[in-house]
Amino acid sequence: MKILDEPKAIRLKIMDFLSRREHSSKEIFQKMSQRVESKELLEDSINELVEDGLLSDERFAESYFQSRKNRGFGPLRIKNELIQRGVKESIFNSIQADTEWSFYALEVLEKKTNGKKPEEMKEILKLKKFLNYRGFEFEDIDKAFSMLNKENL
User: Fold this and answer.
1) Rounded CA gap, 66 and 100, in Å?
2) Does one domain contain both 12 and 29?
3) Are residues 14 and 50 in the same domain?
4) Which domain holds residue 90?
5) CA-CA to 18 of 20 to 30 Å: which in 31, 51, 75, 119?
6) Could you write out the three-class secondary structure of 13-78?
7) 67-75 long-range CB contacts below 8 Å, 24 or more apart?
8) Do both 48 and 67 map to the same domain?
9) What is the tens place of the pLDDT at every residue in 45-77?
10) Both 116 and 139 in a single domain?
């Protein structure tokens, strides 16, 4: 691996990463820290890209949020994953403010059960545990089960 020591080379490599997908500033720093001679040059390049609008934690968070939500993950898990990637909790809160999570929990529940209503308590508890693992809050899980029961009446 070639060690980068010029701002232009560092910027080009970061742009290469960004051309594939959005990244957070923290992710870029972690990926690039082994490839650069000076961490200060890397930080300067990252700050420059942020100022130019080419690197944005908000844009990364929106993209990541939509992707994970569409794959059936809940707010708790998505928030924790974003925080691990260096995104502020306030950014997550503003993105997910209008999301009705119980409907997404219901979608995941219906997909998991193939639309069948669980009968036994053991099965219900297993499904609730699954939804909790996926990052849904207990309130949304209970609403999803209520909606599932109403649909199957």
Assistant:
1) 14
2) yes
3) yes
4) 58-96
5) 75
6) HHHHHHHHCCCCHHHHHHHHCCCECCHHHHHHHHHHHHHHCCCCHHHHHHHHHHHHHHCCCCHHHH
7) 69/99, 69/104, 72/104, 72/107, 72/108, 72/111, 72/134, 73/134, 73/135, 74/101, 74/104, 74/105, 74/131, 74/134, 74/135, 74/136, 74/137, 74/140, 75/99, 75/101, 75/135, 75/136, 75/137
8) no
9) 999 999 999 999 999 999 999 999 999 999 999
10) yes
Q: What are phi and psi of 86, to 5 degrees?
A: 90, 15
Residue 1 lies in a domain: no
- Give the Cα separation of 130 and 64 in Å (integer): 21
Burial class (CB in 10 A: 0-12, 13-18, 19+), 149: exposed
Residues 12, 49 within the same domain: yes
Question: What pLDDT does residue 152 have?
Answer: 61
> Is the domain of 130 the same as that of 115?
yes
Tokens at 35, concatenated: 């490839």
Contacts of 85 (CB under 8 A, 6+ apart): 24, 26, 27, 60, 64
pLDDT of residue 120: 93
Predicted pLDDT of residue 51: 95
Bridge partners for 84 per DSSP? none
Q: Which residues of the chain have pLDDT under 50?
A: 153
